[in-house]
């Protein structure tokens, strides 16, 4: 199974970085195929904790080739800040390659992101303000700046001029901000050119050659299914394809090269930003999950919204992505609860919905129909086989598996790298 896609099942922050790291020793290549530095992966190796935002988490595994694919939008300042921070901690990053076709986040993208979000007022989406959406909008509008453009000053200047023609009118006349000059953008981007040049490659060709050679390639998705621009809770979504289909378009390989789709799902649910969240908790149970699970954004530091496990969302994600295996993370966070509710369906104006309603307005008004499972008190962080878990924890996992439409192959029982139970191998 050489092509393995890792996607988030819920609204992100499920622990995808840990899952990628779990595969690291048998992985030859790790590819980030969507998003930018608006997402974060936290990876714990021994006593060391690493927070990554733009780099694929496979960068931490010695000997693994790390790729930033064409579907990513790259903030060059963030890229080099992360690389320098890893260098300072002794991490070898010489195996990183960046797609020549990846788009670049510029100063004007960041500025527009922030002022547009403020302008929306009560209708704010909850973006991170890092320029991700505006960079993707420029890509679709065909006025984007790609990585390869910074190696030709004449082309770069022409493209920046074209992009700023409209944007300065918006900034000055609508948002009452100063105009941004072509020179300041060009000068900033050119300052990264020589450092970036050795990293840039035809990454699609590299990946196809690797798959032809039988290498194991992991495609690491940012954000998650419910934040996908097509399949998520639009408009409260990210600006890229965070589902398994995005792995093909965002990396330059054909969909027939993707052999296994691994969905990462928490034993409860979280999300950051605005939008519908049927199982959201506003009581002491929410405080318990947030504090025990340290549910604060890796990138933003914002407290995450928290709620119970939502089985219809997992079934939806399984269907949309073609998920073959689930990795259930943070099971240990539920330790100590007397009972654990699970959302099995929704009540919308008195009508039961066993699946996510097609109408977004209905989903906004959905109330969870809960089924209750007995909790457990024993510390499970040292469990390494399914049989090591208390009976109640095993029954909870099996119940989630039965509701989810596919098997739960790996269970996370702690923050450390080895705190996992493997029921089915993700590679073989």
UniProtKB/TrEMBL annotation:
The active site is at 13 (proton acceptor), 41 (proton donor), 139. The keyword Endoplasmic reticulum does not apply. The gene is purA. Mg(2+) binds at residues 13, 40. Pathway: Purine metabolism; AMP biosynthesis via de novo pathway; AMP from IMP: step 1/2. Its main location: cytoplasm. IMP binds at residues 13-16, 38-41, 128, 142, 223, 238, 302. InterPro entries: Adenylosuccin_syn_GTP-bd, Adenylosuccin_syn_Lys_AS, Adenylosuccinate_synth_dom1, Adenylosuccinate_synth_dom2, Adenylosuccinate_synth_dom3, Adenylosuccinate_synthetase, P-loop_NTPase. This is Adenylosuccinate synthetase. Substrate binds at residues 298-304.
């Amino acid at each position: 199974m050489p092509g393995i896609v890792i996607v988030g099942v819920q609204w992100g922050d499920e622990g995808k970085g840990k899952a990628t790291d779990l595969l690291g020793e048998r992985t030859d290549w790790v590819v980030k195929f969507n998003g930018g530095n608006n997402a974060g992966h936290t990876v714990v190796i021994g006593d060391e904790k690493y927070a990554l935002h733009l780099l694929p988490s496979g960068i931490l595994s010695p000997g693994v080739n790390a790729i930033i694919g064409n579907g990513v939008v790259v903030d060059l300042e963030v890229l080099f800040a992360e690389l320098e921070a890893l260098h300072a901690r002794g991490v070898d990053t010489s195996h990183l390659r960046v797609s020549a076709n990846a788009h670049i986040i510029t100063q004007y993208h960041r500025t527009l992101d922030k002022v547009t979000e403020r302008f929306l007022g009560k209708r704010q989406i909850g973006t991170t303000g890092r320029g991700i959406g505006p960079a993707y909008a420029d890509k679709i509008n065909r006025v984007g700046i790609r990585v390869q453009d910074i190696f030709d000053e004449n082309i770069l200047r022409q493209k920046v001029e074209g992009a700023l023609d409209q944007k300065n009118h918006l900034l000055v006349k609508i948002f009452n901000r100063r105009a941004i000059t072509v020179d300041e953008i060009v000068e900033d981007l050119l300052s990264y050119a020589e450092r970036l040049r050795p990293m840039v490659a035809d990454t699609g060709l590299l990946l196809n050659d690797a798959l032809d050679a039988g290498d194991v390639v992991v495609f690491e998705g940012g954000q998650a299914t419910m934040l996908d621009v097509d399949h998520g809770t639009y408009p409260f979504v990210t600006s890229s394809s965070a589902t398994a289909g995005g792995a093909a378009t965002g990396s330059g390989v054909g969909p027939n090269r993707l052999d296994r789709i691994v969905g990462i799902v928490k034993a409860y649910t979280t999300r950051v930003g605005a939008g519908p969240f049927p199982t959201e908790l506003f009581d002491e149970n929410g405080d318990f999950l947030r504090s025990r699970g340290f549910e604060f954004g890796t990138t933003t530091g914002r407290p995450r919204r928290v709620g119970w496990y939502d089985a219809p969302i997992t079934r939806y994600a399984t269907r949309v992505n073609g998920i073959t295996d689930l990795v259930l993370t943070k099971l240990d966070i539920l330790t100590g609860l007397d009972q654990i509710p699970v959302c099995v369906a929704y009540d919308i104006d008195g009508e039961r919905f066993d699946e996510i309603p097609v109408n977004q307005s209905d989903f906004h008004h959905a109330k969870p129909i809960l089924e209750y499972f007995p909790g457990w008190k024993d510390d499970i962080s040292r469990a390494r086989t399914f049989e090591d878990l208390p009976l109640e924890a095993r029954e909870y996992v099996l119940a989630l598996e039965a509701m989810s439409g596919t098997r739960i192959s790996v269970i996370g029982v702690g923050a450390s790298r080895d705190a996992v139970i493997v029921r089915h191998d993700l590679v073989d």
